[in-house]
Write a structure and sequence with these properties.
Elements lengths: L2 E2 L5 E2 L11 H4 L38 H19 L8 E5 L3 E2 L8 E2 L3 E5 L3 H7 L4 H4 L5 E5 L5 H5 L1 H9 L3 E5 L11 E7 L2 E4 L2 E2 L6 E5 L4 E6 L2 E6 L4 E3 L2 H34 L2
């Protein structure tokens, strides 16, 4: 049964909750170099969904969705193509506007990132729980992005930034499709250093487009005339569309399979030659 705190706030527990790990330990930042070894998911009892103040199956509605949706979908599709192989990778979790809880004893204490990404986790186990629970996943998300709107801009640079730092999100980015009107900056990124966020340096080199490098992604997030883009500095090119990314992934896969088949053919030929008297 849920209990009520002296202040009147409902405290939501699991129906059968094992002793939770220390929250500071459970939420220590873990910088990810895509993609680390998948860590096991540690489920801690059954969730009493009836005690939640929200329905995790319902999308989180944003007041100015039309201000946010187009740039949000653009960046989501690029991330899905580049990192998840369109959600076929079992060890990469990517989602939009779903629930991230950050109090193991009260699942009503939550935040809803616009886009968030985690490497080396059991993606399907997270989805079965309908919530991102860092103490069960084994770590917080590796990367979070908020897209500004008139009603959410102040929260993105204030409350949400403080929450993401507290729970140990290694990188937190903000993108303002209204020329910086809501965030106070067109593009901003923070990296967690010693438990505190430090701004990511931005530049316009070499092509005049504002960009900041994300070590977690191995890519630069860009602000290009109110539109988000991703730039690969190692390859010196932009990830243009999810269709192009899908085609590139398919070409890479086909080339790898062809190379592996060729190696097997050579090994078989060598074995036959060695077996000849």
């Amino acid at each position: 049964m849920p209990t009520v705190s002296p202040g009147g706030a409902r405290r939501v527990y699991y129906k059968s909750l094992d002793p939770a790990p220390d929250s500071e330990t459970a939420m220590t930042a873990t910088a990810a170099a895509p993609v680390p070894t998948m860590r096991p998911y540690h489920q801690q009892g059954e969730i009493d969904y009836a005690c939640l103040d929200y329905d995790p199956d319902e999308p989180v509605l944003k007041p100015e969705a039309m201000e946010q949706n187009l740039p949000l979908l653009a960046i989501y599709q690029l991330l899905a193509a580049h990192f998840t192989d369109f959600h076929r990778r079992p060890d990469v979790f990517l989602d939009v506007n779903t629930i991230l809880c950050y109090d193991p004893h009260n699942l009503n204490v939550r935040v809803s990132p616009d886009v968030y990404l985690a490497f080396g986790v059991e993606a399907e186990a997270i989805r079965r729980r309908k919530l991102y629970l860092p103490w069960e996943v084994g770590k917080p998300p590796d990367w979070v992005l908020e897209v500004a709107s008139s009603s959410t801009g102040a929260e993105d640079v204030g409350r949400k930034r403080a929450i993401y730092a507290r729970i140990g999100v290694p990188e937190y980015w903000r993108f303002d499709p209204q020329d910086g009107a809501h965030h106070g900056a067109r593009l901003a990124g923070d990296r967690l250093v010693g438990g505190k966020y430090r701004p990511v340096a931005l530049s316009t080199a070499p092509d005049g487009i504002l960009k900041g490098y994300s070590p977690v992604l191995g890519l630069s997030l860009c602000w290009d005339d109110n539109w988000p883009r991703l730039y690969d500095p190692a390859a010196n090119h932009y990830l243009e569309t999810w269709q192009q990314e899908r085609a590139a992934r398919q070409q890479e896969r086909a080339a790898r399979l062809a190379a592996e088949a060729r190696v097997r053919q050579l090994e078989a030929a060598l074995s036959r030659r060695q077996a000849d008297p």
